[in-house]
Amino acid sequence: MKKLTINDIAQLSGVGKSTVSRVLNNDPNVSSVTREKVEKIIREQGFQPSKSARAMRGVKNRAVGIIVTRLTSSAENQALSGILPLLYAEQCEPIIVESQFKPSLVKDHLKFFQKRGVDGVILFAFSELDEAMLNGWQQKMVVIARRYPSISSVCYDDHKAVTMLMERLYQQGHRHIHYLGVKDADQTTGFTRHQAYLQFCQQYNLPIRSIQGELGYDWAYRNVQAVISEPISAIVCATDTQAIGVVKYLQEQQRSDIQVCGVGNNPLLHFLFPNVISVDLGFSAVGDFVVDQLFVLLKGEPIQHTVVACQLS
């Protein structure tokens, strides 16, 4: 009879592999209902974790370096909230540092990780970061938000996210949809999302009106007037952070006639402005993919590229 693996138990239980791992490691963050369901399958199947798997989980002081772009990023903090519990469940010590969108800092952090002897690295990428800088880390690194051919990655569906917003607005009867985004130099948040807006407008013969700049809500607040001076019924923002600045400005101008949309599923945005339409890029789901791919790499298996599904929230 074929010996069952954690993957088999996960499929029989209807949960993810990482959830089974957390149950086996007695992670207190697993709900009692989920724990009972998984343990029931384990008992019924007579499952016993392999010695090698237990050894991998039981290694003391296993360290994983994590490079975020900004400690203040809502998107990255949402992703971290999914990543950290999984690393703790695998008895890993996370070492979190900040790149501030500076390749030089990434280079310094990687040197530090090398000296520290980390077992793996999770990197939140950005447009200015060249793939060549990451040479030598292919078998122990997973990159988030950017796809490099030679490095395992977990990416968001930026094009689909904006397309979903445009489709929703179009279905609601909006025909004057303007766009406030990030500079095209940013390949994902900037270029890809902007292209999705332009392509939808061209496909449906809609007037194009867009302005691009910085990520922050303060920039959006200062510049949104540039796209509401013409006929407009809705505005799509490249990020939920920008949407916060846009809604604040519109409220001050008593412009309740404009539907605002954003990308990111920012909890603060939904709390302050529940009428804003937003797309959840899948930040909360990233942890499962990233940690799973990292441990696959550490076992010497091939790199993987994953695109996380997005949905209207």
Main beta-sheet strand count, sense and barrel state: 6 strands, parallel
* Unreliable sequence segments: 51-59
Helix content: 40-55%
C-alpha termini separation:
45 Å
- What percentage of amino acids are in beta strands? 15-25%
The quaternary organization reads as single chain
Biggest β-sheet: strands ordered side by side in the sheet = 2-1-3-4-5-11
Shape: globular
Mean model confidence by pLDDT: 90
Q: Please identify the structural class as seen in this structure.
A: alpha/beta
Rg over CA atoms: 22 Å
How would you spell out the order of helices and strands?
A: HHHHEHEHEEEHEHEHEHEHEHEE
The number of distinct β-strands equals: 12
Count of helical stretches: 12
Explained architecture:
The chain has helices at 6-13, 17-24, 32-45, 51-58, 74-89, 103-116, 158-171, 187-203, 217-223, 240-252, 267-272, 283-298, and strands spanning 62-68, 92-98, 120-124, 141-144, 152-156, 177-182, 210-213, 234-237, 259-263, 277-280, 305-308, 311-312. The chain has 313 residues and is an alpha/beta fold. The strands form two sheets. A six-stranded parallel beta sheet has the order 2-1-3-4-5-11, sandwiched between helices. Helix 1 (6-13) packs across helix 2 (17-24) and helix 5 crosses helix 12 (283-298). The termini are far apart. The model is unreliable at 51-59 (pLDDT under 50).
